[in-house]
Amino acid sequence: MDPIRNPYAPGAGQRPPELAGRDEQLRAFDVVLERIARGRPERSLVLTGLRGVGKTVLLNALRSAAVRKHWGTGKLEARPDQALRRPLSSAVHQAVRELGHPEQGQVDHVLGVIRAFAQREAGPAPKLREAWNPGISVPAARGRADSGDIEIDLVELFTDLGGLAADVGKGIAIFIDEMQDLGPDDVSALCAACHEISQSGLPLVVVGAGLPHLPAVLSASKSYSERLFSYQRIDRLSRDAADRALSAPAADEEASFDDEALAALYVATGGYPYFIQAYGKAVWDRAPRTPITADDVAVAAPEAEAELAVGFFGSRFERATPGERDYLRAMADAALADSDADDIGSVPTAAVASLLGKKPQSLSPARDALLKKGLIYSGERGRIAFTVPHFGRYLREQG
């Protein structure tokens, strides 16, 4: 098969040639956009799932849907070492530019509020050389979104943004990836601002994406967050959707897979979108002709697995210290030995400690470090799981 015509695209956040299995989410978001634009009440949206299920791809697809409706949009990626003000200011600045409001005076007022919000950090004023310029030419507004209290300021910022969008009968959508990495104060402020906006009926929506424990992070910040957001779990693809993710791009290149090849690929990938793209690319390059067969899959599988071992699993494993790696391996062994393991493969922290021959308390530093690095998560008290699908299998194969 011609590698130049290979349609498969494994990559972080890279849209696959066929966005299979996400039609329901796309249709539901179109309804959200229409309802908000018409002044109807609607909740902000939170997408959760393991790494490799396509949350970022879907987030980008939802943003494209908002752009097609002529909304103003902005996107940011949360980081544990960065406060919300600056990246959010850049995102909403872009949203205001996309909105195309005809009254420059009103636009300048909101831009001034964004600048005030961006530059007002809690604590002492920064030195001149450390001051940050958000790329806004108008002067910072005074007395609006500049109190230094992130919760007050964010409510005021969102209110002004929503008012600007309402003037032109459109909306503003803010997309936040890796939302679980926001700091506690920023999470609390974001919940409060979304709550205020939903009560006022202004056309602004937040769409967040994060790891499976994101709902718990939001709930710990504000108890009403359980009712504030619409939560959608993004999971592996069904067999039909996985087959479509492989077959549709191949058909566009006048190629196909036989039924046995599709069955073998579903077993190998588990239906995870990133794995489907990785295996699809490897199989295409190895197959001598169309239709692609199960034998072609068997020949290409070691190449796909080697690529995943380096780029998907290995890069994450390398971030862990020796002690943290011991903890990860013990998690993998505990999952294999636990006959009561749930559908996400979580294991009791006590079982990990038992395998390592240590008290659970003594392992808290390693566990907390792995949580902060995003390699594991805790969906419920006393249990932990990998954020990466098939990570346990990878660790056991490494020995």
Automatic annotation (TrEMBL):
Residues 166-271 form the Cytochrome c domain. Gene3D superfamilies: P-loop containing nucleotide triphosphate hydrolases. InterPro entries: AAA_16, Cyt_c-like_dom, P-loop_NTPase. PROSITE patterns: CYTC (PS51007). The keyword Protein transport does not apply. SUPFAM superfamilies: P-loop containing nucleoside triphosphate hydrolases. Keywords: ATP-binding, Heme, Iron, Metal-binding, Nucleotide-binding. GO terms for molecular function: ATP binding. Residues 1-21 are annotated as: Disordered. This is ATP-binding protein. It comes from Nocardioides dubius.
